[in-house]
Specification:
By secondary structure, the chain is mainly α. It is built from six helices and no strands.
Length: 127
């Protein structure tokens, strides 16, 4: 089980990650970007996390990479969905159908649940 300090660090990391994505997507959270740019960001961010996720997983207090990959996926999806919901729906006045209009965000709500366990499995095999 992770200690409170690790949970708080993961939560802070998720907020910082979300904040960076909001700043990069200004003024309209990537809606003003052309379709090709939105399509290009999906593999770019996915590729960024190929070395970043194992690096993060090695910094967990335990070396149970598979379990920690679940925690990492949780903290980089559920809080980000909540932050997006608050930003887009509560503050922006949109509705829950934003998950379709902002499909490039929704992609990561799912992909990290596949990518991080896969990377952890590779780490476990090579260890």
């Amino acid at each position: 089980m992770l200690d409170l300090r690790t949970h708080l660090a993961l939560l802070a990391m998720s907020f910082a990650t979300w904040g960076l994505f909001v700043i990069l997507g200004l003024p309209d959270y990537y809606q003003q970007w052309p379709l090709l740019a939105k399509l290009a960001i999906l593999p770019a961010v996915t590729a960024l996390y190929v070395p970043l996720a194992p690096w993060l997983l090695r910094r967990f207090p335990t070396q149970d990479h598979r379990r920690n990959a679940g925690w990492l996926a949780l903290y980089l999806t559920v809080p980000l969905f909540i932050y997006d919901y608050v930003y887009i729906v509560v503050i922006g006045g949109d509705d829950l159908s934003f998950v379709f209009r902002y499909w490039y965000l929704s992609f990561f709500y799912l992909s990290f649940w596949l990518q991080f366990p896969w990377l952890a499995r590779r780490m476990t095999r090579t260890a």
